[in-house]
Prior knowledge:
Number of domains: 2
Radius of gyration: 19 Å
CATH class of the largest domain: Alpha Beta
Shape: globular
InterPro entries: GHMP_kinase_C_dom, GHMP_kinase_C_sf, GHMP_kinase_N_dom, IspE, Ribosomal_Su5_D2-typ_SF, Ribsml_uS5_D2-typ_fold_subgr
GO molecular function: 4-(cytidine 5'-diphospho)-2-C-methyl-D-erythritol kinase activity; ATP binding
Family: Belongs to the GHMP kinase family. IspE subfamily.
Structural class: alpha+beta
Distance between the termini: 8 Å
EC number: 2.7.1.148
Number of strands: 12
Bound molecules: cytidine-5'-monophosphate
Order of helices and strands: EEEHEHHHEEEHHHEHHEEHEE
CATH topology of the largest domain: Ribosomal Protein S5, domain 2
Oligomer: single chain
Amino acid sequence: MTVRVPAKVNLHLAVGDVRKDGFHELTTVFQSLSLTDEVTVAVAEDPGVEVQGEGASAVPTNGANLAWRAVEELARHVGRDLAELKVRVLIRKGIPVSGGMAGGSADAAATLVGLANLWKLEIGRDELAGIAANLGSDVPFMLHGGTALGTGRGEAIVPVLSRHTFHWVLAFARGGLATPKVYGELDRLRLEGEPPRVGEVEPVLEALASGEPHRLAQLLGNDLQAAAVSLRPGLRRTLRAGVAAGALAGTVSGSGPTCAFLCADADDALRVAAELSGAGVCRTVRVVHGPVPGARVIGGDDEP
Ligand code: C5P
């Protein structure tokens, strides 16, 4: 059973106070992009996880892998014996690892969808979203896809009206950033001073409904950007280079270090990508669009 699952970018990411459970209160707008991982789940005598593709060597293949934790959570939920889990998960990475695009969460969401099909479970999307939320803040959105408003720690999702398709150029960095470290850096910056905060979310929702990229571009914002740039000062150059190459605006994606540049249309995105890839400010560039649907079964074969 093979599932394709897209990466996300946060169009708006307002980070509030630290809660008692250590998570930060968020108001965020997610959009899923046409950059995907593929996850195959199959019945096998040798259970475990295998990872191939983009950055595969940096992904754990033991019980720390979020996709494997998804296998265990779903098994527990439906009362299967954890000692008898004859499941193999093959992950083909297209989403950069530790890139701020929720690649690990994507794989967990894809695993839930794949296994629910493989095991022929009668399980609704809402029930699956509940299990997803236990796995990580971004996992429910990765099931859902499209464009959505996330609140709580990011796991409470409401779909958002988004007209037309938006065209993006992504700049992948060398190496990743650990999400907890970036949140920690933001806490530190806030103790020291007043790092910039994004505005209200409503204008972002209005711009999405208008489908007008110039309007949306002015409103892209991410409270984690200052922290990501503080940890990786070179990102400042990347962000400047994208705009100099003709993008309408750029933002650090989630906790970074991937940068996402919104472009006026598909042709502009191709031009921006060509110029940015020659600027020497990132490892590689990709042209993508959004929104796209969340985790979806694309093949019924059960051989990984
Ligand atoms: O939910 P997830 O496991 O993806 O979060 C990874 C880390 O990011 C958390 O352990 C926490 O340090 C940070 N985080 C946070 N507030 C959120 C989401 C994530 O502090 N709302």
